[in-house]
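Hi P.,

Sorry for the delay on this. The queue was packed all week, but I finally got your sequence through. Input first:
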Amino acid sequence: MSLKDTVSEKLKSAMKEGNEDQKRVLRLIMAASKLAEVENRGSLDDAAYLGIIQKEVKIRREALEGAVAAQREDLIAISKREISILEELLPTQLSDEELLLMANKIIDEIGASSLSDTGKVMKILMPKVQGRAPGDKVSLIARQALQNRS
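Then the structure:
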């Protein structure tokens, strides 16, 4: 079953259960995916759906940081619930150690030696971790791995 079908099925069950938070978040994902399909003039694959979900998680994490800074307990609770709903759709996330091992392996394979090679490493690493780690985290770990080599 594709990720699009999974989201659709989860939305149907959330509607039957009356789970308002889940309905809202899943509808938002479906709307964002439809917009992306219109922009791409075609259907999206699972990798693109994972990207949309990761983007939504990132947005919620930023909102959570703002809510914590503003000491808004109501917004903190909403953001946490939405993040947990979104994370259910993502595959198991990679740990920092796993990402570092993957980055080091790629660095060895391509012979990268300086921070200027970060783009080359990211170009190979991102498709391998698609959906299992946010891009900013992958970039940070790749840069750290390259700095350790210098």
